[in-house]
Specification:
With about 190 residues, this protein is an alpha+beta fold. It is built from five helices and ten strands. The chain has a single domain, classed as 3-Layer(aba) Sandwich (Trna Endonuclease, Chain: A, domain 1), CATH 3.40.1350.
Length: about 190
């Protein structure tokens, strides 16, 4: 980015792999706080279950976990309730211009989404296509059907545009997925 009236150029630093996806997560968390504060929906990020192995105690108020491991494979990122309906979804960021790689989502997460759909949940995936600065809601059933077809190792961007639903942004709701849920799932 070039600053006006300047020779300086700002280059956004590349995020480390450990922080990838945090921007979408922060936007969803902010939106969820808005939904909760305004009594629209109760949706929370699920914590990842870990087992703590070692903690350093330099002093009581500064305890620090130095070694831990995942107890078990986590399911999806978010769940909650909206208008009496259970909602469950995964959120992913994608750097590719052409497709969303299936390697970005785990088989146990797809199995979990299939299971909650079978029991009547509203289930979907939110994909942020970083290069296009767009967020899409994809019904989990459509994603799973394409995934199970085995024809590709990724979801083409053209398919996402055609079958997904773009999520609008605003200052208070940087990822207003409930507006899309209402329209797509007929609530």
């Amino acid at each position: 980015m070039k600053y006006p009236n300047s020779n300086k150029t700002y280059v956004r630093p590349k995020e480390s792999a450990s922080n990838r996806g945090m921007s979408l997560e922060e936007d969803i968390n902010c939106t969820n706080r808005y939904y909760l504060t305004n009594d629209i929906a109760v949706i929370h990020k699920k914590p990842t279950p870990i087992t703590i192995v070692h903690v350093d105690y330099p002093k009581r108020s500064a305890a620090r976990i130095t070694e831990a491991y995942f107890k078990l494979a986590s399911t999806t990122d978010y769940n909650g309730i909206y208008l009496g309906k259970y909602i469950d979804f995964e959120a992913k960021e994608c750097e590719s211009k052409t497709s969303f790689p299936f390697s970005s989502i785990h088989k146990h997460q797809i199995d979990h989404l299939s299971s909650v759909i079978k029991h009547g949940a509203i289930a979907f995936i939110i994909i942020r296509m970083v290069e296009y600065d767009k967020d899409f809601l994809i019904k989990a059933i459509d994603f799973i059907d394409f995934y199970n077809s085995g024809t590709r190792k990724s979801l083409p961007f053209a398919w996402i545009e055609e079958n997904g639903f773009e999520i609008k942004r605003s200052y208070q709701k940087p990822c207003d997925y409930i507006a899309v849920v209402e329209r797509v799932f007929g609530l």
